[in-house]
Amino acid sequence: VSEFDLLIGGGSLATSAGLRPLDLGIVQGRVAAWLAPGGEAPARARIDASGLVVLPGLVDAHVHFREPGLTHKEDFSSGTAAAAVGGVTTALVMPTDLPLTLTPEDLRAKRALAEGRLHVDIGLQAAAHGPEHVAALAAAGAISIEIFLGDMPAPLPVADNGALEAILRATAAASILAGITPTDDGVIAAALVREQQPGDALAFCRSRPPLAEAVGAARALAVAAETGAPVHLRQISCRASLELLRAARVRGLDVTGEVTPHNLLLTDAEILRQGPFAKVIPPLRPEAELPALWDALRDPGSGLAMVATDHAPHTEAEKSADIVKAPGGFPGVQTLLPLLLQAVAEGRLDWAGLVRLTAEAPARRFGLYPHKGSLEPGADADLVLVDPKRGWTIRNEDQLSKARITPFAGRRITGWPVAVLLRGREVARDGKLTAATPSGRVLVRHHP
Ligand SMILES: [Zn+2]
């Protein structure tokens, strides 16, 4: 290259092997070269990253942006704005909107709604409760096929194991990842009868016990073993599911799982403090479940491959209902990176782990690597400049999601996302959007 469009110099490049003092040369929105620090390579523009860590833009594999049909809660513009200021440059959007994303026509209509309004890139995930549309959804660019085993409104739940087998045979044949939300309606029904004690705020948490998740995970993994389908387990929140996932990995199955920041960092005690604003499914767990989740995150052999938010916004009025009526979920895409920067500051995670869990692994698993999830030459220049020393506090008033109330409000963070670039162009700085026009795209997965 005779001249770079942009040179980011003086910083520490975060890779899945750790921090390295390297400058980045960017041409036409892509990383063109890694350069020894302090060189005088010609460039049309420069960013001085002295004292900063240069991270690959985060890939959040699990967000609900509520469009179409539920845009009083969130839409593509507000959801991707929250992502952008938080350092998430690729968000993978779940299919649980109105209508559900069940057919190639639904997928194309959703893509048309999103185009031109995105502050970061997205991918669209489709849902299946039978095998009939799987091949066409894969061909139409769906990032994954999502299967819900229970605890959802009709027609989503796949309670029938023959139907689950048929869907996984179809996803395996189409070489598309099946995302499975593991739960079990029978276990939940029994727990609901057993745990009904008026005035007991924790009854909701106990109504979705670890056993419901583990029984769902066991079903999913047994059918994955039989069909050979690659499977990704959503929102693992307890030790029992982790043990099943690890055993499946030992058998050589192509299976992974994700964990949310809130299941890593909050316990069921938050229900007593925050009421329905801390209601989420799977629920916040007792303190005793958390150490196994952290241990699995730090162990690349565990199969717990990534942190994903389950960003699930609702309005303040909806969340102000009583614990039974209030919907589950809260925003998360904007606080993912800050919470994990705090984990790095506390020594619970290292920079290599942060890159692996929030960028490289999700990009690989969902067919977006190496354009996403990496800053190797050739990758899209999606990156976050982080000041690892700056302290600040998460506040509801700074959230760009329409659901402004985060259960992490008031939490002290060390590590600040100074600026966020998408394809070499600044989209956010110091918690504010900066690009005049949205430049995000709808991604499709690479066919293996
Ligand atoms: Zn979700």
Fold and architecture overview:
With 448 residues, this protein is α/β, with parallel strands linked by helices. Helices cover 30% and strands 22% of the residues. The chain has a 7-stranded mixed β-sheet. Strand 18 and strand 19 (425-429) form a beta hairpin. Helix 4 crosses helix 7 (210-227). It is globular and about 70 Å long. It starts with 5 loop residues before the first strand and ends in a 5-residue tail after the last strand. Bound molecules: zinc ion. The site of zinc ion has 5 residues, from loops.
Quick summary:
This protein has 14 helices and 21 strands.
Brief descriptors of the model:
6-stranded parallel β-sheet; 7-stranded mixed β-sheet; alpha/beta; binds zinc ion; 448 residues
Gyration radius (Cα, Å) is 21 Å
Order of strands across the biggest sheet? 3-2-7-17-18-19-20
Largest sheet: 7 strands, mixed
| Average predicted local confidence, pLDDT | 96
Relative helix content: 25-40%
DSSP summary: helix tally: 14
Uncertain spans:
none
Terminal CA distance? 31 Å
Total strands: the figure is: 21
The structural class is alpha/beta
Bound molecules: zinc ion
Q: Which percent band covers the strand fraction?
A: 15-25%
Question: Judging from the principal axes of the Cα atoms, what is the shape?
Answer: globular
